[in-house]
From TrEMBL:
InterPro entries in the cross-refs: Plipid/glycerol_acylTrfase
Keywords recorded for this protein, A-Z: Acyltransferase, Transferase
Gene Ontology, cellular component aspect: plasma membrane
GO biological process, one term: phosphatidic acid biosynthetic process
Highest taxon, organism lineage: Bacteria
Signal sequence, start to end: none
Record Pfam families: Acyltransferase (PF01553)
Keyword Transferase included in the entry's annotation: yes
One GO MF term: 1-acylglycerol-3-phosphate O-acyltransferase activity
Protein's organism: Phytoactinopolyspora halophila
The protein's name: 1-acyl-sn-glycerol-3-phosphate acyltransferase
All residue ranges annotated as the Phospholipid/glycerol acyltransferase domain in the record: 49-159
Amino acid sequence: MTAVGTRHGAAGPPDRAARRLRPLLSSVLRAAWRVRVHGGDVIPRQGPAILAANHTGFLDGPLLYSVVKRPVHALVKNEMFTPPLGWALRSLGQIPVDRFACDMPAVQSCLAVLQRGGLIAIYPEGTRGSGTFEQTKPGVAYVALRTGAPVIPVVGLGVRTSSSVDGLPRLRSTIDVVFGEPIETTPIPWPRRRHVVRDHADLITEHLRAHVRDACALTGREVGPVRYQQPLDPS
């Protein structure tokens, strides 16, 4: 695995600010909402892993960042990387990605993090929406097949209380973050045929959808309807 060509240099995105600010962000979010974490012990204390999370609202990223006790480097749409927010995101080790193209610098940044034993977070749906993994992209499968890093399903429930993807949950309402059993992957060396990546992506998607059902059963909640969903491609 190589980190050449990353947007953060060969070492990948930084960890230091993420380690320092996570407790502060966690305190702020827990002061505003009642955050319950289920199954967090599946996250390894060390070593690489891919968090594959559903995406229903604005809080998904900050929430995941705050509840995981290790630095999380998430793929964030590149439209967010404008000053001053862009500076903050880069300082916290987040990775800009072009959602509408094959963004190899973003992929290489992910590989660099995993190579040094870190955590990355990818939202396979590619945008905020239903949170049920109805539509997914193959990026998680590609990175998993390149590295052999386990894929950990993550479902957030209560992240919004309206049907709008732009909505926020009511203050002091309950938010559940449910982690699932890791999906183990055997790395496949080059060449990786497109159909192999697609088949593994389909397998991961099945696991993610099953985890949504399990998370809803565990918490007695539903993901909820969505009134507006951004398209996965420009057309």
